[in-house]
Amino acid sequence: MANLKIKLVKSLNGRLKGHIATAESLGLRKIGAETVQPDNPQTRGKIAKISYLVSVTEA
Hints:
Number of domains: 1
Order of helices and strands: EHEHE
Helix content: 25-40%
Low-confidence stretches: none
Largest sheet: 3 strands, antiparallel
Distance between the termini: 11 Å
Strand order of the largest sheet: 2-1-3
CATH class: Alpha Beta
Structural class: alpha+beta
Radius of gyration: 10 Å
Number of helices: 2
Number of strands: 3
């Protein structure tokens, strides 16, 4: 199964609580933090919710 590399590129300050929780569930806490997650519908849904905060590439 493919993996996605997700990087937090914008701050979580002042964001909706749900968006902060989504970022933290992906393992993203600080600007520049990167994580590798499996490419599945659950991960894609989380990325779609906070797409304006992250950049995604295939790992």
